[in-house]
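Study this pair:
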Amino acid sequence: MAAIDGPLELTAGDEIQVRNPLGTFRRPTATTGWRSWFTTVDHKKIGIMYGASALVFLAIGGLEALLIRAQLAQPNGQVLSPEAYNQAFTMHGTTMVFFVIMPLLAAFSNYLIPLQIGARDVAFPRLNALSFWIFIGAGLFVYSGVLMGHIPDNGWFNYAPNSGLSYSPGHGIDFWDFGLQIAGIASLVGAVNLIVTCLNMRAPGMTLMRMPIFTWMALVSQFLLLFAIPVITVALFLLMFDRLFGGNFFVVDQGADPLLWQHMFWIFGHPEVYILILPAFGIISEVIPVFARKPLFGYPFMVFSGIAIGFMGWGVWAHHMFASGAGPVTVAAFSLSTMFIAVPTGVKIFNWIGTLWGGKLRFTAAMMFAVALVSQFTIGGLSGVTHSVAPADTQQTDTYYIVAHFHYVLFGGSLFGIFAGFYFYWPKIFGRFLSERLGKLHFWLWFIGFNLTFGPMHILGLQGQPRRTSTYAAGMGWDLMNLLSTIGSFIIAIGFLVFIYNVVASRKNVLDNPDPWDARTLEWGTASPPPAHNYDVEPSATHLDEWWHRKYETDDRGKLRRRDKIEYLSDPNFDASSVHLPSPSYWPIIVAAGLPLVAYGLIFTYWLAALGGLLVVGGLFGWGFEPSVDPDAGHGHDDAPGHAPSPEPEPVAVGAGAEES
């Protein structure tokens, strides 16, 4: 089959029509009901639960941000006390990094990776469930401390020795410490699972260089997690011993190095930036080719630039420490490495532009969020490169210029990419469209609100406003920019409410085509939403963008045309009972429930720790004796042995999007 090198000569509204060959889209019925969600090991359900819980934490983290901005809207703000302000920005940063962006990306990784590589499920389904429930336990544990009045107040980076008992009495830091340790276990378990899935469970013919770009970027981020999480875990353990057992790892007057925590935290913290951004890069690298009607420009360069970012991300951590007196040799080395890491990132930006160039662009809500990531992340990347100039960084550090920079990277980058994924993959996941009109309203509210919030912070930082201060005096020249920033934050909140309304209203936008965007990758060749076993027909791959090549070919004149016969991966008459999948299990949630009890016990009373330890050990013991596959208790199979096709629906145009109902 000839390769497709240029843009497709078809657009929405052309005379070629696509009918749905799959009949009614099948929704699992054997595991319906709320109880099934507590025992499921289906990667798709776990992905949905990751996403739903992360959106709840996004609402909480957003409320914390609104409190911060309300406090700073005018000089001498009285909305929050200095102590409450410290607690608010600590919880906001911790929530957004560990309980919003990471689990949202885990949601896409869990749901899409098996589908994109043609697998039935992940390599270790029960470990997948364990990872999710441990994450939930970590989030609930941290916020239970908030409800009990034990709120951390030292920033999401929690620098020691400031986080030691001498400077931070009470249990707020303890809840933060144990919460991140528990969340780290979830990340490690998930990383191992997804790495093994990508390397060992690909469909026949699905070579590494035929894997979709999202799977590649998610795989790189899992390797980063695998090596970064142990570093922060060691630091958290040392801090725990200092606070609870009289250790002296960070007690400077006992001979500890005052920079030890900073080194350990940022050796984790800078790879963490790429853990948070690479899968979002992967998402928009799936979205842009579909709506540009072109293959991804320079696929091998996109893959290897992602791998290069993963490697180079380990060599730039000390640029967070230029103001710490690290010395000229260290500063020079890390200044150079900070400049160099911009190169593979720039490669990706030029590849996205190359994909857009000459394409037949269709600006759906997903495409608008994807293109916005390219522009906003570019701004964040350019402001980041300025930090490689040590004299400039010395002035910029601990000012609002830094706040602007990392929000352009993590909000303008990660969150814009995640919401591009929501609008693009919602039909695949739920069999329903999100409204395009509401989606575009959401986009413009976020785009305007985001730039109005964080754009002025560049100016405030260059004018010298320090971050992490609860108020400022009148007459500093910061009043207008802070007011604009606060107005922008409330516009972002309104945009999020529009998205939530869109989700609720989407129940009436029923999908009538399993491949509504005329997409390129394998997951769009099965029903939407997919059955529990993902594919009725075992997938195989002979090309990059396998699903596209199954739909289109070039004729004798070199023109692209739709094939007369398309090899779909779903069969309305398939007998789902012939596929045995891992059975549901309640042991993962029992094991996960024991970890917060251990943490409560170490903080308050050892009896609780013993109880939690027994729960973990007992749960693992029961898990070990539970059959992983029970032919009589498969997860998510349709009850009926076969599926009769429904009457063929009306045709829809190639690439047609959601219609307003």
The first helix runs from residue 36 to 39. Confidence is low (pLDDT under 50) at residues 1-30, 636-661. The radius of gyration is 25 Å. Residues 589-625 form one domain.
